[in-house]
Amino acid sequence: MRRTIFAEEHELFRDTARSYYLRECAPHTEEWERAGQVDRAAWAAAGKSGLIGWQFPEEYGGQGIWDFRYNAIMAEEMAATGSVGIGLGLQNDVIPPYLMHLTTPEQKARWLPGVIAGETICALALSEPAAGSDLKGIRTTARRDGDEWVIDGSKTFITNGILADLVVVACKTDPDAGHKGISLLVVERGAEGFERGRKLDKVGMKAQDTAELFFRDVRVPAENLIGQEGRGFYHMMGNLPTERLAIAVAALASAERAFGCAVEYAKDRTAFGRPIGQFQANRFALADIKARLGVARVYLDGCIMALIEGGLTAEEAAAAKYWTTETGWEVIDRCMQLFGGYGYVNEYEIARIWRDSRVQRVFGGTSEIMQEIIGRSMGL
């Protein structure tokens, strides 16, 4: 169906985003996958193109525009151009609520200009070896010592963990208070005792650096606390619907890219004297996929507008994340099947899309957690 949520300014932004990805990212896919991370120059180029931090006030270099349609465009064009690795989704979708709504004017002046320029790369350090979906179970601690906080602990599965210059860390500042004792502290590159661990060797998303982080008596200034002390858990929960919607957008965009690859292959590849797309089994499979993607797109666009209008609920975001990631995985796997043996060869893009998409059912809360949220919303 024709999409109706975008205006002229969004389409102009889409042109800019597509040009950026085609110029600065897509040509480096193989290089970045081998290296396990992207070149910082791509971040700087995104900043120069106005593709980072448009949500922030103009006085810091932003545009003062809070409109998730721009976020959706960035994710859609990244998938549509075959670009990989660069964590602009985290920088634009997840980090802004923390750095905009929980920071003081002094903190904004200190951090935002670099973030918007693409010079300061951010990470959000929540997950730990023994605490993933259950954020109440984190063990990293921070104790107050005069004008400083002293952090001890470890984090894992941290996107941008190697490249990050500024890390928002969830810590237990009152270990006896349960989830009411969690606070958010910002650790900056170069802090003594802050160490990067392994760059994790993942099944997919090879170009996106995902790392372990270690904090051993890391001292940060007291003014690096963001939000309210002891309210960190609530701050994180408040931001999760937006994060989950962002994952849903990326998941559907990946499935649409896989579908495009499959349709092209079905037209070009011949067997028994005709294109394989003309065989009823394949034609029906592609028809089914087209219908599934179309229905998912309508619901997801509705969620995007609900977020913009301030009405997106936690269960609606969970449903969007659950449906698009589960459906996306089924779609991509089915598209890969159409390629036969070639689908399992890494030189074909469908193989990378298949590898990269599997984790979407896990991060941001597993599919089972999404079902739990939806189920509880029904009073069950």
Task: Give structural notes.
The protein is 48% helix and 16% strand. By secondary structure, it is of the alpha+beta class. The strands form three sheets. Strands 1-4-5-8 form a four-stranded mixed sheet, with helices on one face. A four-stranded antiparallel sheet has the order 2-3-7-6, with no helix packed on it. Strand 2 (141-145) and strand 3 (148-159) form a beta hairpin. Helix 4 packs antiparallel against helix 5 (88-101). The longest helix has 37 residues, at 232-268. The radius of gyration is 21 Å and the shape is globular. It starts with 7 loop residues before the first helix and ends with a helix. The mean pLDDT is 96.
